[in-house]
TrEMBL record:
It comes from Paenisporosarcina macmurdoensis. The chain crosses the membrane at residues 7-28, 34-54, 74-96, 102-122. This is Permease. Keywords: Membrane, Transmembrane, Transmembrane helix. The keyword Transmembrane helix applies.
Amino acid sequence: MNNTKFKVWSFISVMVGAAIGIGITYSIQGMPVLPVLIGYIVYGVILAIFLFFLGRSKIPDTDERTSVNVRNFFAYGSTMLIITLFFIIFVYHMFGNESIEISTLVIFFSVAFAILTLGSFITRKL
């Protein structure tokens, strides 16, 4: 898939996701619809401007060093994620809690996913 098709399909997928999000927000009573709609429209405009002005150089995006760096990052990152999770569970247990709420785990894994995603983009660009 060339770069232009990727830009178009990523923009379409973000807008479809925004429409689904607005539909879910609208279906729940008491949720503000207009601020969410304005936020998605502004996000779509910013994304479209960014994708339109994103230049393409003649240098290839990846090479052997990039794949090795990304592989090493995910190896170290996933290991540190597991060590951190076990440490958090250990400390949580030492404070006398016998169970962990699901929302706590959801927050932890959401933050871990965001950190690993951001780190992979940074590693890919190095």
